[in-house]
Design goal:
The structure holds two protein chains of two kinds. Chain A is of the alpha/beta class. Helices cover 47% and strands 14% of the residues of chain A. The longest helix of chain A is centred in the middle third of the chain and has 21 residues. Chain A starts with a strand and ends with a helix. Chain B contains seven helices and ten strands. Chain B starts with a strand and ends with a helix. Chain B has two domains: 94 residues, Nucleotidyltransferase, domain 5 (2-Layer Sandwich); 138 residues, Nucleotidyltransferase, domain 5. In chain B, a hairpin with a 2-residue loop joins β2 and β3. Chain B is α/β, with parallel strands linked by helices. The chains are: A alpha/beta, B alpha/beta. At the A-B interface, α12, β8 and α13 of A face α1 of B. The structure holds iron/sulfur cluster. The site of iron/sulfur cluster (SF4) has 11 residues of chain A, from α2.
Chain lengths: 314, 237
């Protein structure tokens, strides 16, 4: 298995004959209390890799673009003896630079072995996109939709297992009762029960900003993948990202936005820019919430969310 | 049918009762919240323990504060600052956003209580000391632990207790001021702590705002819970 620390095209990992493991998916339920930390995500995956007994043959660290905190934790992993590759998204969104990064990655992984997997992953993502549409229509619970999207980063380490999960979700028919449609912006929440709690308040999350990128970006060749992932909104300029968000908010008829911010993450600094454009500019009710260590939702955060629901009314 | 607004906070419980057109209110220690109940009255609960007491309806203290401030203060209010024992909430009424200071005691009632305790004073005595001060001692830290060592340094330098307490109020106001929207002019202050006029004086001087303090700052949320109920039901019970 190859550990990944943020979005690394699963198309490439699978085509190289590797099984990816997105370490972040282990973080929200983890009980590790790291000694040295800025962001809990990077500190916890670092500890998991160095001391957690995971069976990894290598690590791909996303060291530029979307996450700026991972480099040193990645280096600590490398110092512990695990082969480590640093993957950087170009800030200017250049597909050529990204393709060069992908070529280095392929070399680290030992070369492309099964080209057909590009297409297989792409087809699975298409099905995830269809489920995303159903979620917007209120036919898929937000917590299930969210989990599917975040698990698309590594496709559960097995394309078969991922396909099975897709199949199960496609077969279920559900009707979600809700009062308002919510967009959850920012990095994925470190609170595993956030979506379910929002649901209990009648707030249906119809857009998970970053997880949606996981199912949206794809391609069936290295250059196709480069062109698509060059548009990864989290890695580029905030104005480009906001333009994209704005379209999604309209398309999904979102009523209000919640911006999740992780302690010590540089994305937190974007909050005033986002608030200015989305709240003051476009009039979306806007709530910022924060998280640090993984846990169930603290009472204080619940209070903020409840007050927000009261503000949105019936 | 009678309805009572009941605000069960982390330290004290507060109630508001409307009978006919007459309001009455009460304050009790948190452990004695039951003493506030009026037999036969239904309860609209707010505050930390809102879900732990029998109730007809619950409402967060944030929404309750908005309704409560409207009850007490006529005219525009740009922001509400609710200073509690454990946290401080700032509600921006222009955008509906609210900020909360809940990670550490700085900027909450607990900070002032800690320092009042250092001087062996009760919270209600701080105001007198504030207004007796000639100068304002400079206190920069708002972390209770660091502030205490700064307090000692200022006393060693020759500042009086009065001047140091005034300095503490100013540090407190600056700390909370970081949460108050910059363009806010008319700001309502609620919660038991704001009965201390020294704190209000420090806010006005530090931030150049107009501080509006309702007649009964402690029961605003209890009144607001009741007002929220009436707004939802379209009139008095
Ligand atoms: S929350 Fe921010 S700092 Fe932490 S891993 Fe994600 S992008 Fe990096």
């Amino acid at each position: 298995m190859i550990g990944i620390t943020a979005l690394v095209p699963p198309e490439v990992l699978y085509a190289s004959g590797k099984r990816p493991l997105d370490l972040n998916n282990l973080v929200p339920e983890s009980k590790i209390n790291p000694r040295e930390k800025l962001c809990a995500w990077t500190a916890i995956w670092r500890e998991l890799v160095i001391h957690g007994g995971l069976d990894l043959e290598g690590l791909v660290v996303v060291a530029g673009g979307d996450c700026h905190n991972a480099i040193v934790d990645g280096e600590k992993v490398e110092l512990s003896g695990l082969p480590t590759c640093y993957f950087l998204y170009p800030f200017d969104g250049s597909p050529q630079l990204l393709e060069a990064q992908l070529e280095d990655l392929v070399e680290f992984l030992g070369g492309i072995k099964e080209r057909s997997r590009f297409e297989i992953v792409r087809a699975l993502k298409k099905r995830a996109l269809a489920l995303d549409k159903r979620r917007v229509r209120g036919e898929v619970a937000a917590s299930d939709g969210f989990l599917l999207q975040v698990s698309t980063s590594d496709m559960l380490g097995s394309l078969e297992a991922y396909e099975e999960r897709l199949g199960r979700m496609e077969a279920s028919d559900e009707t979600v009762e809700f009062k308002h449609r919510i967009a959850l912006l920012g990095v994925p929440p470190i609170y595993p029960d956030l979506h379910a709690f929002l649901q209990s308040l009648g707030l249906h999350v119809v857009y998970d900003e970053m997880p949606y990128e996981f199912i949206r970006l794809t391609g069936s060749s290295l250059s196709g993948i480069s062109r698509s992932y060059a548009g990864y909104t989290f890695a580029g300029k905030i104005q480009r990202r906001l333009g994209f968000i704005e379209k999604e908010l309209k398309r999904r008829r979102v009523d209000a936005v919640i911006h999740f911010q992780q302690f010590a993450c540089h994305h937190r600094l974007e909050d005033p820019i986002m608030r200015e454009r989305l709240n003051r500019g476009l009039g979306y009710p806007y709530l910022g919430i924060e998280g640090d260590m993984p846990s169930k939702l603290p009472e204080q955060v619940k209070l903020r969310l409840e007050a927000f629901a009261e503000r949105l009314g019936d | 049918m009678e309805i009572m607004g009941l605000d069960v906070g982390s330290r004290a419980a507060k109630s508001a009762l409307l009978v006919g057109r007459k309001w009455s209110w009460g304050v009790a220690d948190i452990m004695a919240w039951r003493d506030l109940l009026s037999s036969g009255a239904e309860v609209v609960a707010t505050g930390y323990f809102r879900k732990k007491v029998p109730h007809t309806l619950v409402v967060t203290e944030i929404t309750a504060a908005i309704h409560g401030v409207r009850h007490f203060i006529r005219g525009d209010v740009d922001a509400i600052v609710d200073i509690g024992a454990q946290d401080t909430k700032v509600i921006d009424l222009a955008t509906g956003e609210f900020m909360m200071n809940d990670k550490c005691s700085a900027g909450t009632g607990a900070f002032l209580e800690f320092l009042a305790g250092y001087f062996g004073l009760g919270m209600e005595e701080l105001q007198e000391y504030h207004f007796r001060a000639g100068r304002t001692a400079e206190i920069n830290n708002t972390c209770a632990v660091f502030a205490q060592s700064e307090v000692v340094s200022r006393l060693v330098e020759g500042y009086t207790r009065e001047e140091v307490i005034k300095g503490i109020h100013h540090a407190f106001a600056r700390r909370i001021g970081q949460l108050i929207p910059q363009d806010a002019d008319r700001v309502a202050f609620i919660g038991g702590v704001v009965k201390n006029r020294g704190v209000i004086d420090a806010f006005e001087k530090e931030l150049g705002i107009r501080a509006l303090v309702p007649r009964e700052p402690q029961v605003v949320n209890a009144v607001g819970a009741l007002e929220y109920y009436m707004a939802r039901r379209g009139g008095p019970p």
